[in-house]
Amino acid sequence: MKLKSVLLSLTLPLLLPAALVRADVSAVAQSAADYAVKSYEAAMTDTLAELVRFETVARDGVPLEENDAFTGFKQALQDKAQALGLEYQDHGHVVIIALGDAPEKLGIVTHGDVQPANPAKWRQSPFVLDRQSEPGKLIARGSEDDKGPIATALYAMKAIKDQGVPVKRRIELLVYLAEESDWAPFKAFLKTYPMPAYNITIDANYPVVTAEKGWSEVRVTAASNPFESKVQPYLSDFYGGYFRSQVPDEAHASVVNVTPELVKAIRKRAAAHQSVKFEFIEREGGLEIVARGKATHSSEPEHGVNAIAFLADALKVHDWPANAAGSTVRYLNDLVGTGIVAKQFGDIAYSDDFMGPMTAAVTMVKADDGGLTSYLNLRRPTGKSAKQLDGEIRGALADWQQQRGIKLAKVDVELGDPYRVDNAPHVEPLLKVFRHFTGIEDAAPTAIGGSTNAKLLPNAVSFGPSMPGAAYTGHSEHEFITEEQFRLNLKMYTAMMIEIGNL
């Protein structure tokens, strides 16, 4: 289906009168959902504005309890929960906000930490909710991933409480504070946490996510082989990217001893990539090149334009000496390329009928003690064992080194396991909620490239906040949630808590 048709099918149902939408949810769920929007849409937006102002980014060497952003964020959550008449528990890296006291539970899992944001790439501070720059959009780091869903869940619970809706299960909203950096504290917490029978993460896509690819990474370090020449062109520098789960929107290269012919050739190849903006700064005997693409979540590389990959491709016109920068550019061009499914990387490419292809995106290239390291983020589906894939990756790199006469300083391969849950009893009720409020009758379970905490919980599936077919803006330098989607999420989360809470 063409993108235009997909978007039309997603937006038209939102405009339908309630009477025309198939009634697959209970009348009490519909009533509570309508009440939530009428009573709390403005308050939900104000709460989002309060939550995004905390720069909840993990800082190396700073424990969570000593990070003022996190302590302030937790205090804001506590104050809000108490104001809404909800129970609040602080378990260190995990905050629980709960409604009800039934012995059986429904777990709603989200996170309050965020990825870094480059202020230079935002119209306003990424940690101030921007409601003016683009009317209809709520722009800020965390607006979609995941502070928007937190605010939505709070007011869904408040609406249920106000309406006195009977719910058989205690609703527990688990807000984890290191999802973007370290899953170990959450794993430790879950060892003693009485696990709910039904768990739903609100950190991905609709309709219902029942499978997630495994977060994986190939780290290749090119040795710091000094190279200097007064006449031969070489790369003195090559770097780019901001963090390891973002398709990078900026990359830099420095060329020494550049000739007019070489400049012309680089410019010509760069011009073929119309989706990338290149800046050429000519200096005496040298050339600085900046490539600017489009950042996106590395789980959806198809929605971005990878500045590192396309800058390397623009430099493909010359066989660069094998210092750290030259070796890295050769590796990227030979094995990674500008595609997103690893077709050039030996035999590693593969696909699963439900989960789709393994995707690959170089996310960073940066200097470290060992040389120049490139980070290739893979999202691997079921269909190939980790042992086989690891062998194929290392085999392709070994063959490349032999063919190129280049010895890499280090190769690290980290392969995460894909996740898939079949026959979870709350999948069909969740689909009914989605179909009811969107009018999308053929909605079915889906798979994503992202990796959420659902992997750590039994029978866990994901339910929003992003619509199918829409680019997930979390981890980008233009993260937002539309006011319309925010409103729709409040309806669906309210109904979801009632319907699944009464299973």
Please provide a brief summary of the model:
This protein has helices at residues 3-11, 27-52, 68-83, 147-163, 184-190, 260-271, 307-314, 324-336, 386-404, 427-438, 483-501, and strands at 87-90, 94-99, 105-111, 137-139, 170-176, 198-201, 204-205, 208-212, 214-223, 234-240, 246-247, 250-256, 277-283, 286-292, 296-297, 351-352, 356-357, 359-368, 371-380, 410-415, 419-420, 445-448, 460-462, 465-466, 480-482.
Low-confidence spans: pLDDT under 50, at least 5 residues? 1-22
Largest sheet properties? 6 strands, mixed
Please identify, by name, the CATH architecture of the largest domain: 3-Layer(aba) Sandwich
Q: Can you give the mean pLDDT?
A: 94
SSE order and pairing:
Elements lengths: L2 H9 L15 H26 L15 H16 L3 E4 L3 E6 L5 E7 L25 E3 L7 H17 L6 E7 L7 H7 L7 E4 L2 E2 L2 E5 L1 E10 L10 E7 L5 E2 L2 E7 L3 H12 L5 E7 L2 E7 L3 E2 L9 H8 L9 H13 L14 E2 L3 E2 L1 E10 L2 E10 L5 H19 L5 E6 L3 E2 L6 H12 L6 E4 L11 E3 L2 E2 L13 E3 H19 L2
Parallel strand pairs: 3-5, 3-6, 6-23, 7-24, 8-22
Antiparallel strand pairs: 1-2, 2-5, 4-25, 8-21, 9-19, 9-20, 10-12, 11-15, 12-14, 13-14, 16-17, 18-19
